[in-house]
Amino acid sequence: MEKKSFIEKVEVIKMPIRILILVGTLVLLIAVFIWAVYIPKNDEITKVEESISGLETKLASARRQRTELPKVREEKKKVDQQFKAALRLLPNDMEIPELLTKITELGVMSNLGIEYFRPKNNKKKGFYAEVPIALKIKGTYHDVAVFFEKVGNMERIMNIQNVTMKPVKDRSTDLNITCDAITYTFLKGK
Length: 190
What we know:
Number of strands: 5
Largest sheet: 5 strands, antiparallel
Oligomer: single chain
Radius of gyration: 45 Å
Order of helices and strands: HHHEEEHEE
Structural class: alpha+beta
Distance between the termini: 102 Å
Helix content: 55-70%
Number of helices: 4
Strand content: 15-25%
């Protein structure tokens, strides 16, 4: 038996079958190409396009923020100034001795006799604390009113509460006054 060459074997096959084999081979090669190369690369392209889209959104946001940066800096500067002004009204604990001295001076300037001046325990209220000070003073009603006005005009926040007034003796214009002066202090890190 003689061995036939590949070409001779193919020549024996009828033409329609040869065309089907050719088309089948091409379809198979195209299917393998699509499955092995095109689909994975297409998925990769889709992911890269989504990533680019996300980055473009972030870039647009960053550009918007860059144009607003001078405005934000100006607002921060104003807020810092307001914070400094608020700290003058609401100082820290280190300034309490100065405050006590100032209140004593105001009492003397108002012609009052200060019998005692006792700081009480602080009461924490979130980011600030109340600093109550018990006062007992002696003077006329007018002098007390002047003192309360001077305390109210201080740069620092100060409230006078629980005021009781009693005459020193019957029909006297001099009064014994007890009250609580409440000031506030800023609590750092709260």
